[in-house]
Amino acid sequence: MKTQVAIIGAGPSGLLLGQLLHKQGISNIILERKSSGYVLGRIRAGVLEHTTVQGLEKAGAAERMHREGLVHEGVELVFDREKYRVDFTEAVGKSVVVYGQTEVTRDLMDARAATGGLTVYEAEDVALHGIDTDAPYVTYAKDGQTHRIDCDFIAGCDGFHGVSRQSIPADVLKTYERVYPFGWLGLLSDTPPVSHELIYVKHPDGFALCSQRSETRSRYYLQVPLTDKVEDWPDERFWAELKNRLYPEAAGRLVTGPSLEKSIAPLRSFVSEPMRYHKLFLAGDAAHIVPPTGAKGLNLAAGDVQCLADALADYYHNRSTAGIDGYSARCLKRVWAAERFSWYMTKLLHTFPDSDDFEQKMQEAEFNQLVLTENGAKTLAENYVGLPY
Ligand code: APR
Ligand code: PHB
């Protein structure tokens, strides 16, 4: 087989890139090691920045998001029971759309199916070859046979544990990492959200987040020690601890119910540079990871692939290499801004097991900077609704 761009990974990055390239008349094939059902089974954050909404519109996959997505014009922060609302619309004239990543993925899968684009699911042993030559190609195994795809470029959209980043020589790649000393226990339930907006809580007993998927489906998180297991948290214990960390009015409104899904995820900041090596381009989680406190993971992925699709269109339509040559530097500028914001929100709102009295005072002072200075709220709002890519 031959195609112009071989895409590794059918998560949000790979699927959105496939659609954007299709819209530009650039042929592409997606290789995904899991089944489509497995990919859709992942529960991930669903706060869409305006640039992500634009990306889905360009991809022809925004209709249901516009119909069912929830427009949020602000967010509530609670710091040791002191409440403060950041009004995005007042501060920066923008809003966000709350719409689960599972739904984004489903819409992108449907849009790709409508174009007839080839996605090979359950493609095993994907390997990249000749990425530093003029004739790169990808091999994979399926149904007991080895297949080869010759291409012009390879897009590594295969996430943190993928094969693409590992295909860049170790002496070329520079990585940066911070692993946080706690995890997030997430619970999904068919119960009405406790509030019409998201509530981020810093409580002496730990962080909590109240989010939602619709007006009848809620998503909640609790900071837990890394040593905890899901089986340590029966639903009753989860609901009791969430009420403990919420302020009384919200705790009184909380509607509890059986969990549809419950899992513990670690928190990590990670960046690998560069995001391009000859004919290989990394995008999304393959290149970077953010702690979910800033809701940036999906949005960074969407920004990367919009930048990459523009660059490849410039190459194929105008025979210009300016876009592909500038891809890594352009993406990393936005990636590091999101890494900073996600790290800031994580430091501000979590209880760090080894923090001393001075560090706790710094957290309080940081929160006061936010609520007492005009620029504090504006800066948070600008970063939360999304910086331009
Ligand atoms: N071969 C083929 N596919 C692979 C391989 C491989 N060797 N390794 C991983 N994959 C697939 C995974 O199965 C997954 O479906 O690549 C896809 C990567 O998807 P994500 O991990 O979701 O990453 P990305 O598409 O960049 O989306 C980033 O997803 O994880 C969240 O928080 C993250 O919201 C962010 C978004
Ligand atoms: C979610 O809805 O899953 C979510 C929302 C905001 C975050 C993280 C997760 O910061």
TrEMBL record:
Give the GO molecular function terms: 4-hydroxybenzoate 3-monooxygenase activity; FAD binding
Q: Does the keyword Heme apply?
A: no
Q: Which GO terms describe its biological process?
A: benzoate catabolic process
Q: Which SUPFAM superfamilies match?
A: FAD-linked reductases, C-terminal domain, FAD/NAD(P)-binding domain
Family matches, as NCBIfam families: pbenz_hydroxyl, PRK08243.1
Q: Which PANTHER family match?
A: P-HYDROXYBENZOATE HYDROXYLASE (PTHR43004:SF3), TRK SYSTEM POTASSIUM UPTAKE PROTEIN (PTHR43004)
Name of this chain's protein: 4-hydroxybenzoate 3-monooxygenase
Record organism = Neisseria animalis
The gene that this protein is the product of is pobA
